[in-house]
Specification:
- This is Hydrogenase maturation protease.
- There is one protein chain.
- This protein has about 160 residues and is an alpha/beta fold.
- It has one domain: HybD-like (Rossmann fold), CATH 3.40.50.
- It has 5 helices and 6 strands, in the order E-H-E-H-E-E-H-E-H-E-H.
- It has helices at about 20-30, 45-55, 80-85, 100-110, 135-155, and strands at about 5-10, 40-45, 60-65, 75-80, 90-95, 115-120.
- Strands 1, 2, 3, 4, 5 and 6 form a 6-stranded mixed β-sheet that branches.
- Strand 1, helix 1 (about 20-30) and strand 2 form a beta-alpha-beta unit.
- Helix 1 crosses helix 5 and helix 2 crosses helix 4.
- It is globular, with a radius of gyration of 15 Å.
Length: about 160
């Protein structure tokens, strides 16, 4: 179990931009599936808001849509904070400022949580419009499962 027990799951994205809604979809799926003391939040990825959401958390789980060229929509990635911060420039979140920049800011401000994991799904369609593409929708159950497993690990074996 974490020292203070505070676990935060942040689904980064915008459900009105196609596959960019994967992170928020995972958060919605986890409602009622994780203990009530787990904070479930949705964010647009803006760094200051992200830092505010995870302030005081022992463990942060970020769920994100990821653009990689060439893309394999639906392929999942699990990254540590260091791996996410060091992602190649050709790899980016679907937001103006990527998660790498957010993590660099958090590190510079000494506001990185003790434990941070990123679960990401590769996407291709982030145009305006609702709904996930078929490959991302098919990957969603595995993405939810990975995220829930990270929460269980953070809470420890004695968690409800």
């Amino acid at each position: 179990m974490t020292a203070n027990g505070r676990v935060v799951v942040i689904g980064v994205g915008n459900p009105l931009r196609g596959d960019d809604g994967a992170g928020p979809a995972v958060v919605e799926a986890l409602r009622g599936q994780v203990p009530e003391n787990v904070v479930l939040a949705v964010s647009d990825g803006e760094p200051a808001r992200m830092l505010g959401l995870w302030q005081g958390a022992e463990t942060v789980v970020v769920v994100e849509a990821l653009r990689i060229q060439p893309a394999r929509p639906g392929r999942l990635h699990t990254l540590t904070a260091a791996q996410a911060a060091g992602h190649a420039p050709a790899t980016a979140s679907t937001h103006a400022l990527g998660l790498g920049e957010c993590l660099a800011l958090a590190e510079a401000l000494h506001r990185l949580p003790p434990e941070l994991v990123v679960h990401a799904v590769e996407v291709s369609d982030v145009e305006l419009g609702t709904g996930l593409s078929a490959p991302v929708r098919s990957a969603l159950p595995r993405l939810i499962s990975r995220t829930a497993a990270s929460v269980r690990r953070a809470l420890g074996p004695d968690a409800p």
